[in-house]
């Protein structure tokens, strides 16, 4: 699932990556916002860039904006406690991917951020091109986590996999069947035909799956399922 900045770049093609129309940068340091704005302006020409220096301001911007394709959220902003901002954004704006952009590179925090529904964890220490590649991967529906190259990385990945399995285990038998069809690449109407149920029922199952797996898209649900080798 999570490719690293050093090994997924060859897979990306500019014409295959959807460009964001609107991105919100949430960071209380103006220099950081300016740096991220510069990266976005160069990499995604025409993208509207919103800024917020507090979580309260971020909520206001999201309420007023028609749609935001990405939120770049600093882990340590004054008016949130650790991952409380991420959790609130996922609850209030479940279809908006939230990327943690931070100077912290702690495998435990990364695991907790992923469990809370983060679409990626991008250290500020990454080089400009690595940040761009990470955002492109996220825009393609995948999750980005950096390669920390620490002794804890394998343990952290195992904990992440356990968290994914726990989420899938929370699905009902029918939801697991629908997830299996999603993994198989079937569309909603094909799943409805296979299960002899209505499209409305399938959509309800898909919505429940996304909620229980704490993801914002079918693609992300499939990626997580494939990561642990899910077979219904």
Record the SSE blueprint.
Elements: E1 22-26, H1 30-43, E2 48-52, H2 55-64, E3 70-73, H3 84-92, E4 98-102, H4 107-115, E5 120-123, H5 128-139, H6 153-169, H7 173-183, H8 188-195, H9 199-212, H10 218-227
Parallel strand pairs: 1-2, 1-3, 3-4, 4-5
Helix pairs in contact: 4-6, 7-9, 8-9
GO molecular function, one term: DNA binding
Protein name: Response regulator transcription factor
Pfam family, one: GerE
Highlighted features:
single chain, 232 residues, alpha/beta, Rossmann fold, Arc Repressor Mutant, subunit A, 5 strands, disordered N terminus
Please outline what is shown here.
The protein has 232 residues and is of the alpha/beta class. The protein has helices at residues 30-43, 55-64, 84-92, 107-115, 128-139, 153-169, 173-183, 188-195, 199-212, 218-227; strands spanning 22-26, 48-52, 70-73, 98-102, 120-123.
């Amino acid at each position: 699932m999570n490719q690293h900045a050093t090994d997924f770049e060859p897979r990306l093609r500019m014409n295959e990556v959807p460009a964001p129309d609107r991105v919100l940068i949430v960071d209380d340091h103006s220099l950081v916002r300016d740096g991220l704005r510069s990266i976005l302006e160069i990499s995604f020409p025409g993208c509207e860039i919103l800024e917020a220096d507090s979580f309260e301001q971020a909520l206001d911007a999201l309420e007023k904006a028609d749609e935001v394709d990405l939120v770049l959220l600093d882990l340590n902003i004054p008016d949130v406690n650790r991952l409380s901002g991420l959790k609130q954004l996922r609850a209030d704006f479940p279809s908006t991917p939230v990327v943690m952009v931070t100077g912290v590179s702690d495998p435990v925090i990364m695991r907790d951020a992923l469990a809370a529904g983060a679409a990626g964890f991008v250290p500020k220490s990454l080089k400009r091109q690595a940040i761009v590649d990470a955002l492109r991967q996220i825009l393609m529906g995948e999750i980005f986590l950096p390669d920390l190259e620490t002794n804890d990385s394998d343990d952290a990945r195992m904990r992440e996999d356990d968290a994914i399995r726990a989420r899938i285990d929370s699905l009902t038998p029918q939801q697991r069947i629908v997830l299996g069809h999603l993994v198989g690449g079937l569309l909603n109407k094909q799943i409805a035909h296979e299960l002899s149920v209505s499209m409305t029922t399938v959509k309800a199952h898909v919505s429940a799956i996304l909620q229980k797996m704490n993801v914002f898209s079918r693609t992300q649900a499939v990626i997580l399922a494939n990561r642990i080798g899910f077979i219904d």
